[in-house]
Every structure is written in structure tokens, then in C-alpha cells.
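Hi,

Apologies if this is the wrong queue. I'm a grad student, and the batch job for Urease accessory protein UreE from Halalkalibacter oceani produced an output file that my downstream script rejects. I'm not sure whether the problem is my script or the file. Here is the sequence I used:
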Amino acid sequence: MRMTKVIGNLEDMQHDKEKVEWIELDWEELNKRILRKTTTTGREVAIVLDEQGLRYGDVLFHNDTSTIAIRTKLEPAYVIKPATLTEMGKVAFELGNRHTPCIIEDDEIIVRYDQTLEVIFRETGVAYVEAEKRFNEPFKYKGHHHHDPDESASAAHAHS
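Support response: The file is valid. Your script probably expects a header line. Output copied below for reference.
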């Protein structure tokens, strides 16, 4: 099946949650315009978009019996929880100095798992947890993204 455009987003469409076939992408693939993937039900699809990238919930196919939509894979991440503006400044400076892509969401900074970052967290004294997250948009320095109802912090544990 060939798909050439995003026809909507699950947030804005009426759909049966049980009938959604997911195309699972790595976050790096969200900016790609040409992809060949298999849905969660085993259907082979070719995505050929003109310009725009993809985000969680983008619908590429919809009819009475099926909806095919985009979601990202769960992957290990750090959720950094600065307690003060000073902690936020210190950890943001260190992450920026390393060109670490991040998502800033409310009072948290979310980065992909990289064990070498734990040194920064200890040195700055910032609290963080390891969690599995779906990165629903390509990493950029941005303050908001839509939450996935399946987003899980299972296996999360705190560090001090």
C-alpha cells in the first residue's frame, strides 16, 4: 500500500481505537519523507510524502474498517527534574554544551538515554529518572509535545 499524504491526526478524527494499525518509527524517521515499513498487523506500506515530516497520531489511511497511523517506538530516556532555576540553568548549559537534543516539557527536560550524561546529572545535583518514552516529534529545542496515552514510565526509578 502506497501512502502519499497525511490526511489528519488521531486527536482530531473519530476512530475506533481497536482498529488502529500503527506504523512504528524511530524518532529519527519522523523527518523522513520516504519510508518502507510494516504496520503492527503485518501490512507492508510505502510512505512517499512531498514535504512535511510526521508526528505521533498522523493518519495516513482511514476507511470504515481500518485506520493506519504513526507512532514512535518506546525507547530509554532520562526525565530530568530541576528543582530550582539554578539547577535548570546548570543542566541546560551542560546539555547544550554537548549538543544533546532535548525536549523541554513543563518543568522537565527529556533526553534520550546516554549513560555518559549521568556524570552531568551528579555534578549539577539535578534529580532525574530513567523511563521509557515515545518521542512524538523529532528532537529540537521545543517546549511542548502531545502525550501518547500509551506512554509508559514503567521501569522508572529515581536518582538523587
